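Write out this protein's structure.
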Amino acid sequence: METTWANEFYKMQYEFIGDYPVEFYKESTLEILEQAGKPVYSALELGAWDGSLARALSKHVNKITTVELIKEMTDKAESLNPDNIETIHGSFYDVQLTEKFDAVIYIDGFGVGTDDAQLKLLRNIKHWMADDGCALIDIYQPEHWKKADGVEMYPDPENMPHIKRRYSYDFEENVMMDTWWHKKDEKLNNTQYLKCYTPDEIYNLCKQAGLNITGYFPHGAMDYESMKYHEHASLKECLSYRIKVVK
């Protein structure tokens, strides 16, 4: 199952951003391991980009499998990954995996497609988790993204001074839209569409999938009036939050 926009958007975004050094993910790695709450010997990362986070985690986890939709990114990952990372090119909605994992990780990207697509993914995640395993999944918070509707900005003015983005929000479907383009030609743009869920909504969706949420970890929030990012925010105001789920 693949949306019509995902391949082109993420390929373009990677061309703009490029890869991050493994050191960039040092803090995120420690946070993930702490949130897992127990030793992680095997991990599955969904939407792994070019494998940078997986490579950071590989220093602490014996075996990591990554699944990534964009072929250019999996090729890049395979050229850099150590031996304890297996890279799979494909859609995590359809990929067939027989191994069970101590932790399944999906960072910054949940919400591609319909509610039914998310339910299918959550059921896949349950299938891939070991009986005593967990999953850590980032969820976009609708209350934050409603405030972002119509905002334009440079995502990284220092390193990408020619790249712009615009946020939009579908208030009926609760979908955040994020459009990127090179400022020399706005017509050549690509947009990602991510469904947003309140904590109650994702709790109910997880219940349908046979999963129980045991932790909520809110991330920071953007103040769109001052255009400043705040590292800490409430569960209602954060731009996204991470859930920990178990069987």
